[in-house]
Design goal:
13 helices, alpha/beta, 3-stranded antiparallel beta sheet, 411 residues
Length: 411
């Protein structure tokens, strides 16, 4: 039974209130989801696999667990008895929605298996990421046929529901959750991350209460949020919704989550899952010592993510300061023998309340399994962290310019 959340810490959060709330919704551009029919090929024989260290299940209630002796690969997000162990580096599937190249369904599923076999077994998607949920359904059926049962237990599929701000009836919510369950071919969603466009419409609380009821009925394992700000997260917790995490934009350039949001998370145990952490690829050697403001002088900004995060760079401090950041990251990366992007993700994983960070995958088009796995063994020392923080702090405070987490979608 759901009741008010018993958390005395919330009563001392008055100093967290006061951030402006944006009340005008702006629709998210997206490719309409289309069903992908399952492959009809006969099941191949189960192969014998030799696999590296894996993201394996962790004890419920623990903030972070080690899968084996060595690097920390797993975090457990939890609240009120609900828990889910996730790989600390998640495979982001926004790139399946169009704009990054044509996705071949069979190649994409093969690529998902390769990531999972390499220990990168948590996938993040959404109802509006084109065929992402359908691809996951195809993938999970390949896992069921071709991998042992203990391997299946390690696979996690996190999805999002991004409804229009209409009346949130029980039937409307349930129909949408059932649609994702069908597309992903699972009895229960591992995690449902909920987004809401317009805070002036309090229907998000109705939706979350129905989502919590569906969790209690076994259709969802954990309830989470995406792009909610600190004030709304506090209201949601005070209404007894067992939120385990909030997925937000977070990078060396965008450190907003480490302000009010991280403080509330520390007090309540809610964790952060971050996206935009490598800024669509801007935080890489490819853009070091380049000038993208001159036509054809630098690499093209030819994907939705590159264009989105270039705008974030412009707001933060511009291309010249960004080059200073890349040069600093390159120095650290050479010291440790890893790419710039690996350093960028490790820096964010070291931040307060961060359970996991997203690295986008262009399934069947390119892969970065080795560099991604290097994140787990990379240890940034105090000098590394301080040098990166020093450049990050030279940029503008995006909290003052944009607002709290998710406000970029409600301007």
């Amino acid at each position: 039974m759901r009741g008010p959340r018993a958390n005395g810490a919330l009563s001392i959060l008055l100093h967290l209130r006061g951030a402006r709330a944006r009340t005008h919704a702006r629709p998210m551009s997206s490719t309409a989801a289309r069903a992908v029919p399952p492959a009809a090929a006969a099941p191949p024989p189960r192969p014998r696999l030799v696999r590296p260290a894996r993201c394996t299940g962790a004890a419920a209630g623990a903030a972070v667990e080690t899968a084996t002796a060595g690097p920390v690969r797993v975090a457990t997000v939890s609240n009120s008895g609900d828990s889910l162990a996730i790989c600390r580096v998640l495979n982001g599937m926004w790139q399946t929605s169009g704009g990054w190249g044509r996705i071949d369904r069979d190649d994409a599923v093969d690529a998902m298996l390769a990531y999972a076999d390499a220990g990168l077994s948590t996938f993040d998607m959404a109802d509006h990421y084109g065929p992402a949920e359908d691809l996951y359904g195809m993938f999970i059926n390949r896992v069921r046929r071709e991998r042992p049962p203990e391997f299946l237990e390690e696979i996690k599929g996190l999805t999002k529901w991004v409804p229009p701000p209409v009346k949130m009836t029980r039937s409307y919510v349930e129909d949408n959750i059932n649609r994702s369950r069908k597309r992903m071919d699972v009895a229960a969603l591992d995690m449902l991350q909920f987004h809401w466009w317009d805070y002036s419409n309090p229907g998000y609380l109705d939706a979350l209460k129905h989502i919590t009821d569906l969790k209690d009925e076994g259709k969802i394992k954990t309830v989470a949020l995406t792009n909610f700000d600190t004030d709304r997260l506090q209201i949601i917790l005070e209404n007894g919704i067992p939120v385990v995490s909030n997925q937000v934009q977070h990078s060396i350039v965008d450190m907003r989550p480490q302000q009010r949001m991280a403080e509330l998370c520390q007090l309540t145990g809610v964790k952060l899952i971050t996206y935009g952490t490598v800024m669509g690829g801007l935080l890489s050697e490819k853009f070091l010592d380049t000038n993208v403001s001159i036509p054809f002088a630098g690499p093209p900004l030819n994907t939705p993510s590159l264009q989105k995060y270039k705008r974030m760079v412009d707001v933060w401090g511009g291309w010249s300061l960004f080059q200073t950041l890349l040069q600093t990251l390159k120095k650290v990366s050479l010291k440790h023998g890893v790419p710039i992007a690996t350093v960028a993700v490790r820096y964010i994983l070291n931040q307060t309340s961060v359970a996991g960070s997203m690295v986008g995958v262009r399934l069947g088009l390119s892969e970065h399994i080795r560099d991604t796995n290097a994140i787990f063994s990379l240890e940034l020392d105090e000098e590394d962290m301080n040098s990166i923080t020093e450049v990050s702090n030279k940029g503008r405070d995006l909290m003052d310019i944009i607002g709290d987490c998710g406000d970029e979608y409600r301007a």
